[in-house]
Design a protein that fits this description.
The complex is a heterotrimer of chains A (425), B (183) and C (174).
Chain A (H helix, E strand, L loop, with lengths): L41 E5 L11 E7 L2 E8 L7 H5 L7 H6 L6 H16 L5 H29 L3 H22 L8 E2 L2 E2 L7 H23 L3 H7 L7 H7 L4 H5 L6 H4 L20 H25 L17 H6 L1 H13 L6 E9 L2 E9 L7 E5 L3 H5 L1 H5 L7 H7 L4 H4 L2
Antiparallel strand pairs in A: 1-2, 2-3, 4-5, 6-7, 7-8
Chain B lengths: L20 H15 L4 E5 L3 H9 L22 E5 L7 H10 L5 E5 L1 H5 L20 E3 L6 H17 L21
Parallel strand pairs in B: 1-2, 2-3, 3-4
Helix pairs in contact in B: 1-5, 2-5
Chain C lengths: L3 H9 L4 E6 L5 E5 L4 H10 L7 E9 L7 E9 L4 E9 L5 E3 L8 H12 L2 E3 L50
Parallel strand pairs in C: 2-5, 6-7
Antiparallel strand pairs in C: 1-2, 3-4, 4-5
Classes of the chains: A mainly alpha (425), B alpha/beta (183), C alpha/beta (174).
Chain lengths: 425, 183, 174
């Protein structure tokens, strides 16, 4: 916990020989001569348009001095009606809406949604499509973690780390733009596979790009992970014990930082994760420093996964060859009547998904991303519910920050990686 | 200041619209100074914020256009960049921030959601911020490529250069809250 | 997945649960009566063989035209035994009051506020039952099927878009 003597996080392991290594004795005894003045609480509004509130959240904090005594969160400033919009468009038209949920790692949303619908349709996508999905998911996971690392460091004062992280993210976006067509909101997943195949030479270029990204990540690690100021501000702040994390519904890196080794890719593998060899980093303290280190380590593991996928991937089909679900290739559409009819039906009426309900859960960059899909047999979703990974962490923010300093709220808010688009749907 | 006078007429026949030589020089030099030192207030809400971060970072540098430093207080800013979707709950806040920025001020709608509501035509989203604040430049795209954003900033700079700037502006200032709704 | 969980539920609560089935993809699902949901969840959380310690997702569905109209869906996860189960609770429109499970899992409270905000289903014993996404002046519950998609209720007076003078476009520059 934070040390109230004004020395920040008391951390003796970080730099041996530093001032905090020795026992500090205050003159005149500890708290006997303290004369605390009872004061009124000051209400401060960290408003919706605020640089440190990722996305738009209003936090109304009651302060006593610099300590937060109570906090109330007000969200809904980015509610864009995702669920209701998806109920009014066809299944394939939902993909751009799902892209914009977690906009830093959008392919994961696409894949999660496609998996839910494929569960209902009982489709099994071809191998190459599975590998491509895993590759693009892991690439976007790296992008998400880079954004978090950059933003967290920037808000604690390390602007250089932000620039390096954004540069590393940019070179990855160049590769994604070659593959998907868009840098950020890629719209790459389809029900039954993926949208398009990799261009010529993409795999070699991406491997080189990943090497460069790894250099950037190592550079960031050198800059920040053993920095006195960074450790003082993040170690010991925003502590969430393991039992609380489970009860509050944490998943993903935040849960693993609290000590619970649960990762959906290992526990209930989907796509090709059971054929890949990677480790799951697990933390001990559940504080901001651990959550930060989780992201750094997961980036290295994602890099490992992508390289294995490149080695294992075989040429093949990128989508199920069933034209009730997937658009037929253009020569068939223009050449045959059946192709034209299939294309027309898919575009105008939508894919006819059998009635029922399904819940698909995948390991997104931030935790368990769940899609609850209810279909009434038609071409449009009846209900598309989203389980946002950042939601429980945001809801637990008052729990995490009560009785800590106001300036500890900033790294805590950063490290839970709340993305406005997914939390507020 | 924003949308009234986009470009100065070159040839005028009426005396009160004509600008003298010295006033023209002053206007051009003030326009030059204002366009190359924009203090932006990034009102970031959604996905376009990621592209905003990219535009402000090292590769597509916004600093070379003079618009580097984000001022997070509206009192210190003159360019309001509305990045991302503005929904009905956020609209009063946007209006309030806009009113708190002092003249001369410009507004850039970054992204398709700010320009026209994007594809979120539903109960929650304002269909374009120009329903709430007057906008100078619209940058479409979902999200726009950084090159598009830089193009939009250059358009804005050209517009600022062409506007009429005075050292002492004797136009009566609008009272906050009673501004004419059509400009 | 194995039917261990739903078999145990049917055996323990024969009157509260009905229609257990294995859904698509192997999910175990069961319908639970509205009044007994807290007892069932307490059993699932504390029984040493069940240990469902997390409620990752709670949502509601509006089946307009069917009676009862709403349905609250609880997806539960057990980290220790790596099992999932889905509980479905039918809620009629007139009596849309469901006992809250926030006493068991604190993480459930925002999900229940979401159900209230979007569908109008109230939860008794909830610590903080108020709207989550929509503003307090909003009338209605948006995700209900009879709420129009474009039913905007603006907070700020909006200008009529036809008033705005569009400046010279890209074709006239340079």
């Amino acid at each position: 916990m934070t040390d109230h003597k004004g020395l920040g996080g008391l951390d003796t392991e970080a730099t041996p020989g530093s001032a905090l290594d020795r026992e500090i004795r205050l003159p005149l005894g500890e708290h006997e001569l303290d004369a605390p003045m009872p004061s009124r609480h000051m209400t401060v509004n960290l408003g919706p348009s605020h640089p440190a509130m990722h996305g738009v959240t209003r936090a109304v904090v009651q302060l006593e001095g610099e300590f937060i005594r109570s906090m109330k969160l007000d969200i809904g400033f980015l509610h864009r009606g995702f669920e209701k919009s998806c109920e009014n468009v066809t299944w394939t038209q939902c993909f751009p809406y799902t892209d914009r949920l977690n906009y830093v790692s959008s392919i994961m949303n696409n894949v999660g949604f496609a998996l839910a619908v494929e569960k209902l349709c009982k489709l099994d996508v071809p191998e190459r499509a599975k590998y491509l999905r895993v590759i693009t998911c892991e690439i976007h996971r790296i992008c998400d973690h880079l954004t978090l690392v950059g933003a967290m460091a920037m808000e604690l004062g390390a602007m250089t780390v932000f620039l390096y992280a954004i540069e590393a993210r940019d070179i990855i976006y160049d590769r994604l733009a070659e593959l998907c067509g868009a840098r950020l909101t890629s719209n790459y997943g389809r029900i039954g596979g993926v949208a398009r195949d990799t261009p010529e030479g993409w795999i070699e270029k991406t491997t080189k790009t990943l090497d460069r990204t790894k250099d950037y990540v190592d550079e960031i690690d050198e800059l920040v992970s053993r920095n006195r100021i960074f450790i003082d501000r993040t170690r010991g702040t925003g502590v969430v014990p393991r039992e609380d994390a489970i009860e509050l519904g944490f998943t993903g890196p935040c849960l693993r930082a609290s000590g619970e080794p649960y990762d959906i890719r290992k526990a209930s593998p989907y796509l090709v994760y059971d054929r890949l060899d990677f480790d799951i980093p697990v933390g001990t303290n559940g504080d901001n420093f651990d959550r930060f280190q989780m992201r750094m380590e997961e980036m290295r593991q994602s890099d490992r996964i992508i390289r294995q996928c490149f080695a294992q991937m075989e040429p093949g089909e990128i989508a199920v060859q069933d034209f009730r679900y997937v658009l037929p290739p253009k020569p068939l559409v223009y050449g045959t009547i059946e192709g034209l009819m299939a294309h027309f039906k898919i575009v105008m009426e939508g894919i006819q998904v059998p009635a029922g309900e399904a819940y698909s859960y995948t390991e997104a960059a931030n935790g368990e991303l769940g899609f609850y899909v209810v279909s009434d047999g038609g071409g449009r979703p009846y209900k598309l519910g989203l389980r946002a990974p950042g939601w429980p962490m945001l809801a637990a923010l008052p729990f995490m920050s009560v009785d800590s300093l106001l300036s500890d709220l900033i790294p805590t808010f950063d490290s839970i990686n709340m993305i406005g688009g997914e939390v507020e749907q | 200041m924003a949308s009234e006078l986009d470009t100065l007429p070159v040839i005028t026949t009426r005396r009160d619209e004509a600008q003298g030589f010295l006033q023209g020089l002053v206007s051009k030099s003030l326009g030059w100074a204002r366009k190359y030192s924009l203090f932006q207030y990034p009102f970031v809400t959604a996905c376009c914020g990621m592209e905003y971060m990219t535009v402000a970072a090292a590769r597509y540098d916004l600093d070379r256009f003079g618009a580097a430093l984000p001022r997070f207080s509206p009192r210190q800013a003159d360019l309001l960049i509305v990045v991302g979707t503005v929904n009905c709950k956020q609209a009063p806040i946007l209006r309030r921030v806009y009113e708190q920025i002092a003249d001369p001020k410009w507004v850039v709608a970054f992204g398709v959601c700010a320009s026209s509501g994007g594809f979120y035509d539903n109960y929650a989203t304002v269909q374009g911020i120009d329903r709430i604040v007057p906008v100078d430049v619209y940058i479409p795209g979902c999200p726009p490529r950084p090159e598009q954003v830089l193009d939009g900033i250059m358009l804005l700079q050209r517009k600022i250069q062409g506007q009429e700037h005075k050292l002492i502006d004797r136009k009566p200032l609008p009272v906050v809250g009673q501004e004419p709704t059509s400009r | 997945m194995s039917k261990v969980v739903i078999d145990a539920l049917v055996e323990r609560f024969p009157d509260a649960v009905y229609e257990a089935y294995v859904g698509v993809g192997g999910d175990d699902c069961v319908f639970v009566k509205k009044e007994r949901i807290v007892d069932v969840c307490r059993f699932l959380k504390s029984d040493p063989k069940m240990l469902f310690d997390m409620a990752p997702y709670i949502t509601a569905v509006d089946y307009l035209g069917q009676e009862p109209r709403f349905e609250v869906v609880y997806n539960l996860l057990s980290l220790k035994t790596n099992r999932r189960v889905r509980l479905r609770v039918k809620v009629p429109e007139q009596d849309a009051l469901v006992p809250s499970v926030t006493s068991l899992w604190r993480g459930a409270d925002w999900f229940e506020r979401y159900c209230f905000d979007m569908y109008g289903i109230r939860f008794s014993d909830h610590p903080d039952m108020r709207r989550l996404f929509m503003y307090d002046e909003f009338v209605g519950h948006p995700l209900r099927k009879d709420y129009p998609l474009k039913g905007r209720q603006p907070l700020v007076e909006e200008r009529d878009v036809r008033d705005i003078v569009r400046g010279p476009g890209p074709a006239t520059r340079d």
